[in-house]
Give the backbone structure.
Amino acid sequence: MSNTASVESTSGKAPVLTGVNVTPAIMMEFKNTCHNFFEAKSVPAEKQVAFILPDHVCDEILKSHLEPNKESFWVWSQNIIKLNCPLRDTTSLFDNITLCNQLDAHLDNTLKDCVKHSEAKKEKTLKSWINAVRRLDETQISKNKHHQDLIEESLNQDQLKHHITDTNALCNDSNRNHHNYITSFSTTSTSSTSYVPLPTLLDSERTLLGCTKCRRFYVSYRSLDCPMGFPRGKGYRTLSMANVLAAKKGKNSTSAPPAKPASKPVAATAPS
């Protein structure tokens, strides 16, 4: 339910003002409705009830302060002027000089300082003073908005830089991990591709070898007790009789040289 005040008027009865939030327009409506009632009922002036709103209106004007975060100077000042309108024909009405002083005293500190150091203080009428202060206020609002935009732009740039830095770090980590994976895979692949399996022995090779594991000729051990192990598959060639002869020749060359025959005496002497 709205708390805005309203005027209730019924035939033959005095108008009634209801609600909490009384606006200048409602005040004027109530005042005019009361005058119409007095005229319709021919109520003499000495029996008319005095206007009941001046004290309330005066309080509203006196306690009103400009709050730049909520409204501009122009909107605020026009509301004060509207509040003063219902006070006409009463002793509570603010004249232009009093109203100008009231507005000036209740400016916010920033705008008050601007007015103090401007040409607005030289204005002689309420209307010209209000227009001069309005221009100062609009300039201040524009500056504040510009500063706010700069701050927001700076914050957005900082957030963007942090986002780019985090993204680059993430990409670098990803690239580094990918590089390590590729390097590891390449090394593994190289190792895998460099391995050459040892060919299976042919029957002809088996008959020539001394050990079928290390594939050597003329050895005293067999595959079960071979101390040498399998040879590498890379570069391996099928064994042939030529390999047997070469191995035999090498074995003979490493054997002990034959003993020299005893020398026979060439001459002998016998005792006489």
